[in-house]
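User: Could you check the structure of this?
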Amino acid sequence: MDSHVRSLLVACTGAEDVERAGSLQSLWRGYGSIDRYRLTGGAKGSVIVKHVRFPGVADNGDGYPREQAGNLSDRRKRRSYEVETQWYRQWATQCDDACRVPRCLGATGDEDEVLIVLEDLAAEGFVPVRRQVSMDHVQRCLYWLAHFHAQFMGRQPAGLWPVGTYWHLETRPDEWQVMNDHDLKQAAHWLDETLSQAPYPTLVHGDAKLANFLFSRSGQCVAAVDFQYVGGGCAMKDLAYFVSSCFDEGDCERYEARLLDDYFTALKSALRARRPDIADVADVERALRPLYPVAWTDFYRFLNGWSPGHWKVHGYSARLARQVLASIPG
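Assistant: Sure, the predicted structure tokens are below.
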């Protein structure tokens, strides 16, 4: 264990001793790892450390080519970890049990690496979904998203991505350039502008896939992790991306109306409780619901350039895209 990791853990937890208990996962493209540490002599029995090591300046043992350091993808990744650190330092404390996130115990970073020390959600009784998702799991996540979006509706994303999500057009010019669907490519800027100018902006998680949600053993409580792409935006971007991570094309179509109904029921309830300044919560649904297919098409646009053979490039996505493209003025 690096001595500075041990020093940080001791300083932010009050532990007398620290032991690395294993790695939960490697970060994308060899940027480090997420590890569990066991503690003795402090208030916490364990913590999770997100340890980011930037390529070209740190150990490159994961096979990430050093010559990639500093390119557009690398700069985007570096910025994402700066954003995540800012999220945990300045924003995460505003999330309550209805939109639970891990508590940040400490964070530090420089040009070489970033260290984020988080509470161990497993020690709090949360586990990831490891088998086929149930509708109850999905509805719990919709409830989380609704309360998250209500909590931050109208807020300026200071220190975060001005426009959240990892597929935002401005940060993905290479994927746009190689798109093979001409009509979708031509519509990319309209899709982006429509979502960016949507009424009732909020913070979006930015990577709200099922794998980033953990559930209490009873299944009644949900927590979300991985906030590298949190930022401003239209709530429908999170909703469409989440649904796409849960179902195949048949179930996406079969459950579309039900899932939208469930989300907006939860959102309106959350707004009444959290945002009494928004007098007409029904207007929020009237404004945002028609943007669900636009948000879906925007992600489909990204996939068309990034991974045309992806399993989410299916008939349902193509049908929504055709409908949206046909609705574009002029």
